[in-house]
Specification:
Elements lengths: L4 E5 L10 H9 L5 H24 L1 H8 L8 H19 L4 H10 L2 E10 H11 L3 E5 L1 E4 L2 E6 L6 H15 L7 E4 L5 H6 L2 E5 L3 H10 L3 E2 L3
Parallel strand pairs: 1-2, 1-6, 2-3, 6-7, 7-8
Antiparallel strand pairs: 4-5
Length: 222
């Protein structure tokens, strides 16, 4: 019988110590010719300060700008690199207590759902490794088997994460007020406030303040 509740987990900073820039950098260094790889690596390194500034100002704009960098990559190649990227980047970056956090929710009868602004193909190996039941993630548009640099709307970020969780619960017959939510960022305030049992994990200063004000549990994973 399906679980009547779910635990929704943000990924970057919550379950792993990485972010979407680390993921793209890996893709940039693992495709095409040596000359092409060098050019993309340098371009990515030069863009990191811009990425960080945009992310701090507006997550939606950041995502729209950032995913243009995937334009031209084949879907098959993206999926294949994702497996290596998981082993080289994501798996080593998992917090030691990540599994315990997920296992605790599973024992409580929760469906495990990852909610991430990353692209779905890049997160599938992680979801499989953690035994997640489902995933809410951004999906790249492909034309003729190649990414066009645009994400299928709505972009999963901020308030849209909350909307996606609400819609998911309606579709799957889950009790939203019994669901758990975990995130490290104040940008996910809407995601945390929409569920009945929010938890701040490795919270940034603003989210830590919000969590204290609302008496939400705070976890600091190592």
């Amino acid at each position: 019988m399906p679980a009547a509740k779910a635990a929704f987990y943000d990924v970057d900073g919550t379950l792993v110590k990485t972010n979407v820039v680390h993921v793209y950098a890996y893709y940039a260094m693992n495709r095409g010719s040596i000359l092409g790889i060098a050019g993309r690596t340098l371009a990515t390194a030069a863009s990191v300060p811009l990425f960080a500034a945009m992310d701090a100002l507006d997550r939606k704009t950041f995502n729209e700008f950032f995913y243009r960098y995937y334009a031209g990559l084949s879907e098959d190649r993206l999926v294949a690199i994702a497996e290596d990227m998981f082993e080289d980047v994501l798996k080593p970056a998992l917090y030691e207590q990540t599994r315990d956090l997920i296992d605790q929710a599973r024992r409580a009868g929760c469906r495990i759902v990852l909610v991430t602004g990353a692209l779905d193909f890049s997160m599938r190996p992680l979801a499989r490794y953690l035994g997640a039941d489902d995933m809410i993630a951004n999906k790249m548009q492909f034309v003729g088997g190649k990414a066009n640099g645009k994400v299928i709307p709505p972009i999963i970020e901020g308030a849209n994460k909350a909307n996606a969780i609400r819609s998911y619960c309606v579709r799957e017959g889950l009790a939203l007020e019994q669901c758990h939510g975990y995130s490290d960022s104040a940008s996910d305030y809407a995601m945390l406030s929409v569920v009945g049992r929010p938890t701040a994990v490795n919270p940034d200063m603003r989210l830590r303040s919000i969590a204290r004000a609302y008496n939400w549990p705070i976890l600091d994973l190592k």
